[in-house]
Structure formats: C-alpha cells, structure tokens
Amino acid sequence: MADKSLDKKVLNATKWSTSTQIAARIITPIMNMILARILVPEAFGVIATITMIISFTEMFTDSGFQKYLVQHEFKSEKEKIKSANVAFWTNFSLAIFLWTVISLFSDQIAIIVGNPGLGLVIIVACAQLPLTSFSSTQMALYRRSFDFKTLFIVRVIGIFIPLIVTIPLALIGFNYWSLIIGNICMQIFNAVFLTVKSPWKPEFYYNFTTLKNMLSFSIWSLVEDISIWLTVWVDAFIIGYYLNEYYLGIYRTSTTMVNALLSLITASIVPVMFAALSRLQHNHDKFKEMYFQFQKYVAILVLPIGIGVYLYSDLATSIMLGDQWTEASEVIGLWALTSSIMIVFGHFASEAYRSKGKPKLSFIAQVLHLIVLVPTCIIAASYGFWELVYARSFIRLQFVLVHIIILKVAIEIGIWETLKNIIPSLFTAIIMGVFATVLKTVSTETIWSLLSILLSIIFYFGILMLFPNMRADLLGLYKRIVPSKRNGS
Q: Which residues contact 71 (CB under 8 A, 6 or more apart)?
C-alpha cells in the first residue's frame, strides 16, 4: 500500500514538474523577445553581469542544503524540522554577510566585472540574495513532500511578473532598472507565498553538530556547482572585463536564447534518460543500449535544428530578438551549431556518469575543460569580440573530446560505437544543410525563407526514412514525445 501511495505521489509530482518546465521554457523566451524589442543590448549586458555575481554568491548561501533536505532520511519529523532551521539560518546569515561585503566593495566589484560606475546597481540588485535564501528551505521541503503543484504555481506567477512589472517599467524608460526591480518583486513574491503556504515556519534554533553533518553531505555538491558555474560564466566575465556591456549583452542574450530553444527538447528527455539509466547501472549491456537509444532520439531532432539555425541565423535573430540585434546573428548561428554537437556528445555523457554513481567524473571533465577554456578566452578577447565568439564556440569541441575519452575509459562506451549510432541523423542533417543552402540562393525574402525551412524539414525526414530501422526509431521518438492515452497520459 505504501509503495502504491509513493508511486501516486511520484506520478503526480512528475506531472506538475513537467508542466512547470514546459511553462517556463515557453513563456520565458516570449518575455525575453518582448523585452529585446524595448531595451538596448547594453541593458542586457548589465543584467548579465548582475546575474553572474548573484548566481555565484547563491551557490554559497544555499551550500547544497536543498539537496540535503530533499535526499536525507531523517529519523523523525522533529529531526527534519531542526535541520530545516539550521539550513534556513545558515543560508540567511550567509546571504546577509555576502550582501554586506558586496555593498562595501561594490565599486571595486563593478570595475572587476567590467562595469565601472555601477556599484549602486550591484548593491540594489543583490538585495535578491537574502530574499532567495529566505525561500530556499521552503522550496526544498516542498520537493521533499512531492508538492510540485505549489512550486508550479509559484514558478508560473513568477514568470508572469515581468508582464506586469518589468515590461511597463521598460516602456516608460527605466532601462536595466526595470529588469532589476522585476527580479526583486519576483523574489519577494516567492518568499512571502512559500512561507505563508508552508506548514513549516522558521524557528530560532541552531546546532553546529547538525551543520557539520549537513556540510559533510553537501560539500561535494558545492564543489561541482562551482566548476559548472565557472564553465558557464567565465566567457561572460572575460567579455565584461576586456570589452563592454554592449558586447556582453549581445553575447549573453544570444546564447541564452539558443539554449532556451534547444532545451525545449533536452529538458523533457534528460530527466527520463537519467531515471532509466540509473535503473540499469549494474547491467552494462542494457545500460549502453538505453544510452544509445536516447542519444539517437535527441540527435534526430537537435542536429538539424543546429544546422538550420546556423544557416538561417538572420531570420532566427529577427524573430527572437528584433531588428536592433542584427550583430547577434552570427553569435546565434555559431552557438546553435556547436550546441547541437555538444548536446549529442557531451551533455548526455554527464548523465551517464551520474547514473553510474560517478559524479566526480563530471567534475573532472569540467576542470579539464576549464584548463583550456580560460586561457583560450583571455587570448581571444585581446584580439576582439568576434575572435572570442569563434574561439569560445569551437573550444567546446575540446569539451566533447574530454567526454569521449572519459566515456571510453570509465564507462566503456567507445567513440566508434557512438558515431555508428548517430551516423544516419548526422549524414542526413548535413545533406539537409546543403539542400537548404541551395534553396537560400533563390531568394532572401522572408516568405521564401520560411517556405525553404519547411521544405528542408520535409527533405530531412524523407531522407532519414530511407535508412534501415529509422522508421522504428522515428515511431519510438514520437511515442516518447506524445505518449498514448492508454499509458495514462
């Protein structure tokens, strides 16, 4: 009976969690498309700098306690409440401390990140830190109890806050302040709503033994988070330091929009893949079979999107960002092309490491990539923005190489096996790219571009169907994306 109750909770939680992901990944890009037509790239450059600072400090204010509260098996409800209080006061105290330090050294920090004169902006924006820490413990407890419905409501309302706060402020000329005020309003709402609804309320209790146990559990998670943060943000830091907020806005907004587009596919597949691989971690043959199956499905969709966005980057930029972002076109094209390769050969490798119970492999991969990434970006930035864009885009192939080697050595998945698995979709995507290039020579009109994209899609799947067994793979992909009613969807 208990198992059935848990299954029901998990199923219900999955439904709300999936709904949250879909809502966020559809609504957020639409909001960004609206704001990109109101604000100039410099405003997004300032916000990228602020986000970089906040995301770094938030790693320390949370310290991995969310994962501890979700995963740890407490002996009693009383022990869980005590741990929640320790997590809350630790997070909140660290947030206040870091906000104070940032406020004292805001001018110096502004210079370091390439935005001198914006010290006050950094102080005000970092008011989010204590607000975020205030709701962090509640969010963990909601996840622990499988109450994803409440988290769905919070996320969706939070997504719509820019519609009623940020966009009106941007229209009347508040520039980047409109984004900062909108984010602060969202965090205030999260803190108040989650605290009011939560059956747990903060109490003044603290225990250093409990803190020690929590830190021993969470320290590895923090180290891995720092390595991932460096990989994600080091290029933005270098652009802000060596260039200016205009180029940072162009670069960061472009890459964010591409990531949002491709995550429409990966966000729904990766969680299922991780769960499936975890159940097969002790059966190596079945593990590889499942890994290759998911990789093949994603390659079918992601590779043609990457090549298509690269070829039609001008149209993609016009649709996603508007006419004032024409310089973003080349960034969007390059990032989409290399992202498609990175997703197929790199991102899935990380899921394989974790599902095998070897998360340290992910950390090792991040470090090996950073050793090459950081000097490459610094050297390229000294030559100019576009040199950095090309260097940053193609240095991701080194990250792919790192994953290929680790997969071979630690997981026993060879490069030739991987290539054989995705050759049909890779070959067909390249042929589609040639076909689309020929179509582009006919006309540059928008109507023809849209028609040629449609023809390229038909051409791609038509050629793909000529490969043996691809019909079964396409049918399997369809069933995973559109589950049948018989399966309870």
A: none
114: left (phi over 0), alpha (psi -120 to 50) or beta: left
Give pLDDT tens digits for 119-171: 899 999 988 888 888 788 888 777 777 666 777 777 778 778 777 888 899 88
Band the pLDDT of 452: cuts 50, 70, 90.
Answer: very high
Evaluate if pTM is beyond 0.90: no
Which one-letter amino acid corresponds to residue 39? L
Backbone φ, ψ for residue 161 (5° rounding): -60, -40
Question: What's at 245, amino acid-wise?
Answer: E
Q: How many CB atoms lie within 10 A of CB 329?
A: 19
**Burial of 416 from C-beta contacts in 10 A (0-12 / 13-18 / 19+):** exposed
Per domain, the residue ranges of the chain are: 2-217, 243-487
**Of the candidates 272, 12, 4, 267, the residue with the CA atom closest to the CA atom of residue 149:** 12
Q: What is the mean pLDDT of residues 34-39?
A: 82
The CA-atom distances, in angstroms, between 317 and each of 263, 320, 330, 451 are: 18, 5, 9, 17
Q: Please tell me the distance from the alpha carbon of residue 302 to that of residue 341, in angstroms, as a whole number.
A: 8
Integer Rg of the chain from CA: 23
Q: Which two tokens stand for residue 360?
A: 């340290």
Q: Nearest Cα to 404, choosing from 457, 443, 441, 350?
A: 350
| Per-residue pLDDT at 9 exceeds 60 | no
Contact 403, 348 (CB under 8 A): no
CA distance 66 to 48: 25
Tell me how far apart the alpha carbons of residues 63 and 361 are, in angstroms, rounded to a whole number: 21
CA–CA gap between residue 123 and residue 100 (Å, rounded): 9
Report whether 403 contacts 365 (CB < 8 A). Answer: yes
d(CA 427, CA 446): 27
Distance, in Å, from the CA atom of 417 to the CA atom of 352, rounded to the nearest integer, reads 15
Who wins on pLDDT, 462 or 478? 462
C-alpha distance across the termini of the chain, in Å: 23
Give the separation between CA 458 and CA 436, rounded to whole angstroms: 11
CA distance 455 to 156: 36
Residue type, 320: M
Element (H, E) at 404: helix 396-406
